[in-house]
Amino acid sequence: MDLNYRVVKKLPSIDDIIAAYPLSKKAAEKITYDREEIRAILSGRDARLLLIIGPCSAWPSSAVVEYAKRLKALSNEVRTKLKIVMRVYIQKPRTIKGWLGPVNQSDPFAPPDIGVGAAYCREMMVNVVEMGVPIADEAVFTHNAKGFAELLTWMAIGARSVEDQEHRIFASGTDCPVGMKNGTTGSIEVAVNGIVAAQHKHHAVYGGDQVETKGNPYAHLVLRGGALGPNYGVEHIMAADALFKKHKVHNPAIIVDASHDNSKVLGIKDPNHQVTVVREVLAVRDVNPEILRLVKGFMVESFLKEGAQKVESQKPESIDRGGLSVTDPCMGWEGTEKLIRELAESV
Fold first, then answer.
1. Residues 188, 190, 192, 198: is their CA dihedral positive or negative?
2. How far apart are CA 57 and CA 155, in angstroms?
3. What value does the mean pLDDT take over residues 83-89?
4. How many CB atoms lie within 10 A of CB 10?
5. Per-residue pLDDT for 177 more than 80?
6. Any bridge partners for residue 265, and if so which?
7. Based on the structure, what is the number of domains in the chain?
8. Potential cystine with 104: which of 37, 82, 100, 343 (Cβ 3.0-4.6 Å)?
9. Helix extents (H) in 9-55
10. Residue 4 maps to a domain
11. Is residue 154 part of a domain?
C-alpha cells in the first residue's frame, strides 16, 4: 500500500533515550505503590479522594518542575485526606490543528523534532517522578508509549479517543489505572462502552508479536462535560450508575473533570469555575452521600500563573515561560493551594 508521506529523519532509539534518563529503583517502586493506592481508592478500599491536577500541557519543563516542587510539599500536608497525582501532559489532542505538545515539538517556535521532544519529555517526567510526585498523562499517540507510559501512575483516554478501538485495547493492556472520558458530545454511554472494552481481554499486534491483553479492571469513567453543557450533576451520576450495573462494570468509579466543558460559563472556559464545580459536587455528596458514592475524585487544570497564552499568536521573545499555560487556561497557584486545602478539609 502506498502511503502519502516523506521521511524527515531517522529517530533515535527509545532505549537509548531511556538509558540517558534512567529511573531509579526507588522511584520505580514508588510508581508501583502509587498505582496500588489509586486502585484502592477506585475500588472503595481507601476513603481518600483522588485529585489529578496540573498544567493543561507540560511546558516548559522548568516551570513544570517548579510546580511539582510546590505540589509535593502541599501533597505531604494533605496526604491522609487526598491522593494527589500531577498532570504532566506531554501529548495534546487538537480539535482541528495546532501544537501537539512537547513530545512532538519541545520548542513550539522551532520545527517539530520528535527525537528531541522524546528526550525532553523523558527527562522532565523522570525529574518529577524522582521527587516522589506521581504523574498522569493522556494516551494520544499509543504507538510511542514506551519510555513514558511506565512512568505514569494514572492515564487518561481522551474524549476524542474513547471510541477508538486501538485506544481501548491499549487501556486493556496497561497496568496503570485508566480514566475513560465521555465523548465531546457529552455521551456517557460512549465512555462506559470504552470502559467495558478496556476491562476485557483482546488480541492485538505489539512489537511484531500477537499478544493477548489481560484487561484492566480499574478502567473508570471521567465526566468532562460536552457539547450540551456540564455533566457532573446527580442525574448524570445516576445515569452512569445505571450503565455500570447494566454492563457489570468492575470497580465502578467516577472522576469529575472540573475543567473542559464542565468549567464553561456562557460558553467560555473559566479556569476559576473549577472551584465551583468541585464545591457543587461536594455539597450534593454531603446531602446524599449514597448518590455520589461513585465519585472518587476530581481533575483540575492548574499552573503557576492564572490564565493562558497562545503560542500561535506570540513571538518567541514575548512568550511567558514562567508557568502560564500555552494551551487551555489554568488556575493559578494561589487558587490551587486554596482549593486543595479546602478539598482536604471536606474529606
1. negative
2. 14
3. 98
4. 7
5. yes
6. 268
7. 1
8. 100
9. 14-20, 25-43
10. no
11. yes
What local confidence, expressed as pLDDT, does residue 1 receive? 63
Which amino acid is residue 321, in one-letter code? R
Residue of 263, 306, 303 lying closest to 281 (CA atoms): 263
pTM, entire model: 0.97
Angle value at C-alpha 186, between 184 and 188, nearest 5 degrees: 120
pLDDT tens digit string along 291-331?
789 999 999 999 999 999 988 878 899 999 999 999 999 99
Domain assignment present for 201: yes
Over residues 149-166, the pLDDT tens digits come to 999 999 999 999 999 999
What's the pLDDT score for residue 92?
86
Residue (of 228, 278, 287) closest to 82 by Cα position: 278
Query: What would the grid cell of residue 312 be?
Result: 500561535
CA 347 to CA 334: how far, in whole Å?
Answer: 21
115: Cβ contacts below 8 Å, ≥ 6 apart = 9, 11, 12
CATH of the domain at 260: 3.20.20.70
Q: Where are the alpha helices (DSSP H) in 136-187?
A: 165-172
DSSP 23: P
Judge whether 155 and 161 are in contact, CB under 8 Å: no
pLDDT at 215 over 90: yes
**CA 216 to CA 103: how far, in whole Å?**
26
* Separation between Cα atoms, residue 198 and residue 246, nearest integer Å: 16
Which three cell numbers, joined as nine digits, stand for 144? 510511542
Range of the domain at 35: 14-346
Q: Which three cell numbers stand for residue 307?
A: 490564565
With both helix axes pointing from N to C terminus, report the angle between 234-247 and 188-199 in degrees, rounded to the nearest 10.
30
Burial class (CB in 10 A: 0-12, 13-18, 19+), 73: exposed
Grid cell, residue 112, equals: 517539530
Going 304 to 305 to 307 to 310, the CA torsion angle's sign is negative
Residue 308 in domain: yes
Give the pairing type, strands 264-265 and 268-269: antiparallel
Average pLDDT, integer, range 15-20: 97
Closest by alpha carbon to 278, among 236, 339, 220? 339
